[in-house]
Specification:
By secondary structure, the protein is of the alpha+beta class. The protein has seven helices and five strands; from the N terminus they run H-H-H-H-E-E-H-E-E-E-H-H.
């Protein structure tokens, strides 16, 4: 901005007023640019906040909707026409297949608990085990399901999270400790190690791909985080980390309570 050329015969008051007007215009121009910058920053922050709120909810609902439709596409065609509401309703009823599948699996589990159910299940497994090729596929799939269900139980002692040095010394990777190594691998004692743990190390972002490793117990550094918290770290590529402040506060409070109880007991 060019300064105004002073006119002759200006009084000091006029000169001061003109200088104040120039300074005010300059400050107003700077404020306009700053206000525009603040407005753009606020708009960006508002957009990112909205994306952070709506994004996870939308993706979760989409995945749930996809699973429901996938199960409905498998189960609904098996229902008789007079039991399928889609035949007489003007719109399809979502979730009916999921409900029928849940009730069916529950009923099968209840029937398998009695003598007749156990007999039928044993006969079916015997037939599967005597069929070539099929027995290998069935045995592997059944073992996977049994392992997943057993490790998800609340009383499972080996469902823990740990760290191992991988892929080289000084580089640590998260692993899920699935069980104590048993069977032929434990009997062979590779490297002379008799106390081995079976761990699964996910490759990150794209589980369930990963490596099955048999590690000496002393080489596994156990963590206090849960499997769900470790899974968040793996799925997010390390962006999401569990908050340990609340846990440390709870641990400190528990230690203080235990110390107070111990000191209150008579010697």
């Amino acid at each position: 901005m060019t300064k105004p050329t002073p006119t002759p015969n200006q009084t000091p008051a006029e000169k001061i007023s003109e200088a104040q007007l120039t300074a005010g215009l300059k400050r107003l121009a700077e404020d306009d640019g700053s206000a525009g910058g603040h407005f753009g920053t606020r708009m960006r922050n508002a957009f990112l906040t909205g994306l952070l709120i709506v994004g996870p909810v939308t993706i979760t609902l989409y995945m749930m909707w996809w699973v429901i439709n996938w199960i409905d596409a498998w189960v609904k065609p098996l229902l008789p026409a007079h039991y399928n509401p889609d035949t007489y309703l003007p719109f399809p009823l979502p979730g009916l297949g999921l409900l029928v599948a849940f009730l069916g699996l529950t009923l099968i589990g209840a029937l398998a608990a009695n003598l007749l159910g156990r007999t039928l299940v044993s006969s079916g497994e015997l037939m599967m085990s005597r069929t070539p090729i099929v027995r290998n596929v069935y045995g592997a799939i059944k073992q996977i399901f049994e392992s997943v269900i057993s490790t998800s139980g609340p009383n499972q002692n080996f469902q823990k999270v740990g760290l191992i040095e991988f892929p080289s010394k000084g580089i640590w990777s998260i692993v899920f400790v699935t069980a104590e190594t048993a069977g032929e691998i434990a009997d062979v004692k590779p490297g002379g190690e008799s106390d081995l743990l079976t761990v699964f190390m996910p490759t990150g972002i794209v589980p369930p791909t990963g490596f099955i490793c048999f590690i000496p117990r002393r080489d596994v550094t156990f963590l206090s985080m849960t499997v769900e918290e470790a899974a968040k770290i793996v799925l997010s590529g390390g962006i999401v980390t569990p908050d340990m402040q609340g846990k440390s506060k709870d641990t400190s409070a528990a230690k203080a309570l235990a110390l107070k109880t111990t000191m209150g007991k008579p010697a």
